[in-house]
Amino acid sequence: MKFKTFIKDKIHKGTVTCLGWSSNDEIYTVCDQHQVYKWSTKNYEPIEVAKLPDDFFPTDLHWFIARQLGISSGSDSLLITSSDGRFVILNKNARVERNITAHTGSITTGRWSPDGAGLLTAGEDGLLKVWSRSGMLRSTVIQNEEAIRCARWSPNSLSVAYCYAGFIAIKPLAANSKLIKWRAHEGLVLAICWSNDTHYIGSGGEDCRYKIWEPSGTVIYTSSPDDYAVTSIDFCPKGQLLAVGSFNTIKLCNFMGWAYSYEKQSSTSIGSLFSLNWSFDGTQIVAGSSSGSVLFGNVIEQELASQNLRAKTMSRKTIQLQDIVTKTADLIDFPERIINWNLGFGHLVVATTTQVHVYKEKYINTPLAVVDGRNDVRVIILGKKYFLIVDNVSIWIYTYTGRLHLNPKYSGMQVQLIQLNPKCVSLGMHYIGIRNFSDKTMIHMFDLMPGASRQSEATSIQHKTNLTEISVCRAGNQEDQYIVFIDEHRDLFCATVKRIQNQDDEIYKIGTQVQSCMWGSESNILVGLHDASYSIWYCPGEACSDPTQIALTTVTFDTSEFGKNITLYNFEKSIITFRCSGAIYSVQIDVYCDAVHRLLADGMWMQALKVCRKAKNKTLWVTLAAISLKYDQLEISEEAYCASLQVDKVEYLQHIKELPASSPEQLAEKCVMMGRLSEAETILTNNKKYTEAVELLLRLHNYDRALDIAEQHQAGLEHVLSERKRYVEALGRNEFSPKFLRFTSQ
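The chain above was modelled as a monomer; its predicted structure follows.
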């Protein structure tokens, strides 16, 4: 992956001090000439749109684009700051609407907030101020002794990061909040940026290094020293790329810091790149230099792989698709610029500026379908039956023939479209999950079954803490659909999608310290990445309710030999692919476990049992036991538990088999064994087995609920009171439950 650059040499007389994108095809630049130029990426020719006053020397520029920020009401505005402490706000027609004196010295930074509610200015006088959109001063956030060289908003608009001397500091806007500060570089910190997707902070300094930080100040990556100081740095809006500019040089890097390409301008000297900006779609950059040149760049040679297919972008409008088995390659030309694309499940989906093209693996010469009218496509996710796209209008789910299948909607979705990314949107086999951005503890689940009313019938899953990533399983039938999610404490949880609609408490913790996770494309096997290892859950859905079974069906491997900055790349069939500092590593899961999952998906129980007998693997036996118990294969489950030496479960299964077949008692006992305690109680009470329900609750030491049922249905009240008395006496305590104290007084 690299930049394909084009330089418009010395259009400006003097340093290009600031620039910004007003759309994906329009750029505004300003220099010391006091002129504002507009560029088009179609012909790269500047047009003068405004002239600033002669005493106004611009230092920073930032566009407020209401549509890009997901704001339905509001007009686009241009913010330009100056060296004399003033800033001006211009409308789309380049007419000055506000001219405000903000600082006593030069303003180094002027930025609109991500939510569009206000703007910040930082200056050489050491002050950092927050203003309303109309230009009214709200507060002076920072009063620093040294000059502030650069400042940026946090993605949620609740904090501000700024740099001075060799330090970076983060100041939350909440009252009485604590300032976080750390030493970042040996010399001056010249530039910082804050990723909207990963929330990482990038910085560049006079020590000729660039670094990636967590908001807490923990360093993630430190580059080797370059020949010149790093003068500009910016994260791609999609979050996966980073651009770094210095003298005569521009780098394309991964968001973790390691470099894809290093491009040095050898034909002509353009000077230091003091201003650098990504387009909104994350496919183009523009940079202004100290010599007055403007550099334009497009990301090319981006590669994706899926089984035997390899796809690579060769230019702005061309993709090469290669089949490594047949050793054939085809070039696909598009009439418009490519802004997003994805490859998987035997299909290639490419989004241009106004269309979405769908290609099938065996029919590359002609598109399988073309969807018109989809602008600014930010996310493309492929599934086995459908593909999902997110644009500036809504969320759309299409079949691979181009037919609109579902248009899911929930309250507040329109405002959150700009923030949706692949970590908070997951397309499964039968369900789609979307994490809410206004309430990050909530997940909206939509059924993918056909039906016009399903696009607004969302089921909500509520967690206790904020969630960072969700993933819906991509295989299995409708009864075997699970969702896993990672919270802000990096704990991994699993829930059954179909049963969660009625039982909100059936969410089980199955892992800790998990950075990211991914389901297999052909079986319900889960892989999760830790700091220095990765884990494979061979049966996360059926075994999630039992910590013992989760421990027996989870295998952890060390990743020290992979290197640093490891990310999950793909999980297709039985191959897991990791990416580490540019290198790709592939590992294979246990072939026997993969075979058992495939056989059980087809209902071939005896063949799966033969595989387990041949492999003699404890993980494999527990996987078979958990799945077979769910499908009432008690004989197979008993043999599997016996082979895995789980004597307690074998005895319990024998007790279940002695009960009448398909009776409420047997169904309830099976639910207890699978951890579905609420469902077991419901089965007994719905069949009017109140005495049995009371006995079950007493066994589970749920005395309060047992008392409620006994009182309501007059079933074994004295027995409940006597068992409660024995329980309290065994603890050596007096009765402490208010429900039982009233019986003690009577």
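The CA atoms of residues 171 and 177 lie 8 Å apart.
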